[in-house]
Amino acid sequence: MYLHLFKARLLVLLALPLAAVHAANPSVSGSVTGPDGSAVAGAVVFVQTPPAAATVTPRTMAVVDQVNKTFVPGVLPIAVGTSVRFPNHDQIHHHVYSFSPIKTFELPLYKGDDAPPVVFDKVGVVRIGCNIHDWMSGIILVLPSPYFAVTGADGRFVLEDLPNGTHVLVAWHALSKLKPEETAQTVRVPEAVSNVNFRLPLAPPRPRPAMHGLRP
Amino acid sequence: MRWPTARSLRTTIFVAFSALILIVLLGTLGITQFVIGREAVLALSGDLRTTGQVFVSLLAERSTRLQTNSTLLASDFALKRVYATHFNPASYDAETLASAGLSYRQRLGVQLVWMTDEAGNLLAASPARDPAGQSLADFSPLKEALASQSAASGLVEVDGKLMQMVAVPVLGPEVIGFLLLGQIVDDTVAGRLKRDTRSDITFLSASRVYASSWTFPWRERERVGAAQLATLLHGHNDPNPAVSEIGNRRFLALVVPIEAHLPQPLYALIQGSYDDALAPLHTLQWRISSIGILALTGALLTAMLLAGRITGPVRLLVDAMHEVLRGNLQRRAHLERADELGFLARSFNEMVSGLEDRERIKDTFGRFVSRDVAAAVLDGRVPLAGDRLEVSILFQDIRGFSALAETLDPAALLRVLNRFFTEVVAAVEAEGGVVKQFTGDGVMALFGAPQVRADHVEHSVHAALGIVDRLARLNILLQADGIPPLQIGIGIHTGEVIAGLIGPDERVEYGVVGEPVNLASRIEALTKGMAATILVSKDVAMRLGPGFVLGRAAVLPVKGKTQPIEVVELLSQPSSS
User: Fold this and answer.
1) Does residue A71 sit in the same domain as residue A45?
2) Which residues contact B441 (CB under 8 A, 6 or more apart)?
3) What's the confidence (pLDDT) of residue B490?
4) Cβ of A101 and B87 within 8 Å?
5) CB–CB contact B173 A134 (8 Å)
6) Would you call B173 and A207 a contact, using CB atoms and an 8 Å cutoff?
7) pLDDT tens column, A129-146
8) Of A104, A130, A137, which has the smallest distance from its Cβ to B174's Cβ?
9) I need a surface site. Which of A24, B164, B199, B567 has the fewest CB within 10 A?
10) Residue A67 within a domain
11) Higher-pLDDT residue of A18, B7
12) Cα of B52 to nearest chain A Cα, Å
């Protein structure tokens, strides 16, 4: 129902880039910083409770690539119910697996696009690894709603197409010492939609097996 | 064989050599004892220290191997999968884990396998432990592994046994649990270590002995008390090994602290046999002693030989000297040598020849002059310049000599004269006088020269009486031979004369010059006229002590002199024969 409005908003935005004309679905922006104010990149800000009325159709397919013996992206936020493909663009085989309770799966040694996609139908954090390459690890963040954004290097995020109303936003980071629900901030759309700031204390990164510098 | 005495050169050489060699031998033995004993201890200490380092290395290597094996094991996908089931209580499979643990124990030959979750809570153990699910988060090496999220190892005590344990994380892909493997350090291990290093090793703390390579009964663990352990460990702060005695054998022991997570500090007691280390020393000492004794014997034989070469000739010279001192001046020392001893012998011979010559001269000389004079002249005691001496001069003459000469043939006459003169010389020399001259049928004797005599007057008178006495006896003998008795006259005077060597050098004569000489002669000449045997001058008579019988006195003119002289007759005492 809102599709044409969405397209109209887009046109308006394109036509009047400098006019701060807010259509029916504004974006919420802000930043995620550490306790000392430094920017936190790679944090995911999302709406905790999916709103009754969805304004976007979630993607049905997401991708975690394997390039140069690394998962790309390292953190993939998806809405619950999304399928994820794991293409292998390396010249070697990989064996992707996860023991996470919400999704335990295994893609035995394969190359290219040989592996079938995996549907993530439970909300939570899924840690994936490669059985033959100890250093490879990645996270698939299965979120309750399609409304999420990832901070860039500047620590800023933009959440778009949020429906009007009150929303609870939370922030997650792989090293965050706080649980997402502990970072909850309420946002009323369309008011107070900018400079939503999350302060996340981060733990030091845990030691991981090194990819280089070992005995050949 | 002459027994050696302290005064024998040969003995001195012998003793000196023996003492020297003995000192050298004992010194060498002492020094080797000290030096080599110390070296043996140092070497053994070095060995022990090295062994200690080897032990520590061996333990580290075992640990590393265990860790490698554990890491490989923890990478097993099937194991990871089973580990991951603990996330979901519904699918958690503790039994599978435990059975896997048993399988790994057998695969690796380790004594225990523990599996924990990522927080250190026990999931499964082989052999089984109670209670399951307990937290091992404070148990080393898991404690360290949890903190670093990587592998850790260490020595720990489990159920009273010493274990090398390793804790490795199980990745999936982040840490989903820990795998602990443990291998025991027991007597077998200690024995293997001993086999490789030749030193005994015992792993112990202050409260118990964990493992030992000893097979001695003393180390029965239950009976090793705290006191004994304390004794063994008392040197634990000392980097130098100390000597201890067990049974009858001596050991050097080194205490090496070993890093471990135990209630009390862990030590490795490393022992090497002290006796074995010193065995080469004893062998060496035996050898040195043997060589030393041989050397001593050899040196002594050489010494004796050398000594003989020196003391033999010396003894020969000494013997010769003894004989010479006893009076045998014909003795010579025969040493045909080119060295100093040969020179000594030749000099000795020359010297004795010289003595012999001198004696011969003295003898010969003495036949012509009295031995006193001869000796005095030879000795140089007669001053050439002359001396003023107070002497007594005795002149003696045979009366009726011409008549006698006609009776006897010249040979017989001389024989008689010589017999008589023998008596005269004897009488004179008995009184310390000197027969200066034989005047054909008479004698001139001196008293007080060349040897000064204080009582020369009395001596001269006694000599005169002696002559008369002896003549009387001689006459008896002569009468037995049919020879008429001799009759003599004696004149004695005393006074100062000049005595010395008179005459040119080639024909020098000891003589006296002075008025008293002439007067003595004149007094003798007067005896016939007075029909007296002995006439002495007044001077003489006055000088005589009691005991002399004086007879007639007279004043008689002296031919050629204006002054007459007073003479007194001396009567013979009754002979006391």
Assistant:
1) no
2) B397, B398, B401, B417
3) 93
4) yes
5) yes
6) no
7) 999 898 999 999 999 888
8) A137
9) A24
10) yes
11) B7
12) 31
